[in-house]
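QA checklist item 7 of 12: single-chain prediction sanity check.
[x] sequence parsed
[x] length recorded as 333
[x] structure emitted
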Amino acid sequence: MEIVGSIWVAEEEGNSLALIDAATNRLVTRLTGLEGPHNIQVAPDGRSVWAVSGHDSLAAVVDTATYQLRGVVPTGKSPAHVIVTPDGKMAYVTNGAEDSVTVIDTDTLRTVATIPVGPYPHGLRPSPDGRWIYVANARGRTITVIDAAAKSHAGEFEVGDRPVQVGVSSDGRFVYASISGENRLVKVDVASRSVVGSAEVGTGPIQVFLTPDDRTVLVANQGRPEAPGTTLSVVDTATMTVVSTVPTGNGAHGVVVDPSGRAAYVTNIYGDDLAVVNLAEGAVVAKVPVGAAPNGVSFSPLPPSVPPATEIILDLPRHEEEQDHDEMPGMQH
């Protein structure tokens, strides 16, 4: 199973970003100097990668061809996740400690809006048409809906105790959310804004990701440091039943699927490695050692360019005093 592309990993306690060649499952280079990167996201065109610093409360943008820092943008306190809209024009960052979302113009790298959401916003994803942004409020029971055109709060719907991340079907009809407080995955009909399906998964489910055919959604089960979750649940979206459970490693946290739907990549936050899963076989086919506490993970269809060095230092502005990064219960590492 040879995949063309790159896997980017946020090494939260390593204060670095790892770049892995999907064709060889080998570490290509490491970008250091970003304090406490929690989440990471490759832009739709693959030409840049965004990461947030929980330490310095900012979003950093890196050119994926040169590995050079394009710029930084201040965010709210305790930024958690970052996404880029399907048209590539806007980036959205959840600010966990401020119950808000920062909206950034990706061309000018300026904040254009700050939107109030629910308690401790964490994971978020856009609808495929870019019209809506769905935000999981990890210390509440709701998903906030943002109107992307108006850049405003457009409502909320209840899903269960402590939703952490969402996935959106390719037709935009359904949202799937990991419910960490109940060890469940739920399916929401966005037209009625009601839960229409539920599946029991592993302990402490964190990130979710749909396969390209929409037939299954993958759920990474992290558990807790004293009782790590070690599996990836594969859930049938039609029946909302777990069709397979794949052991991936200690503290399965982040998950992404390559565009061909053949491989999934899971960060094991307590095991300091990345598991490569052959989805057809339902088995881990490689483990890639990475830095401390690998968290967010994102896939780029572009293969790595030749790195100038095995380690690259990002020249980011430094803050004299560390800001508190308020951990969400169930996501400690």
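[x] summary fact logged: The chain has one domain: 6-313.
[ ] second reviewer sign-off
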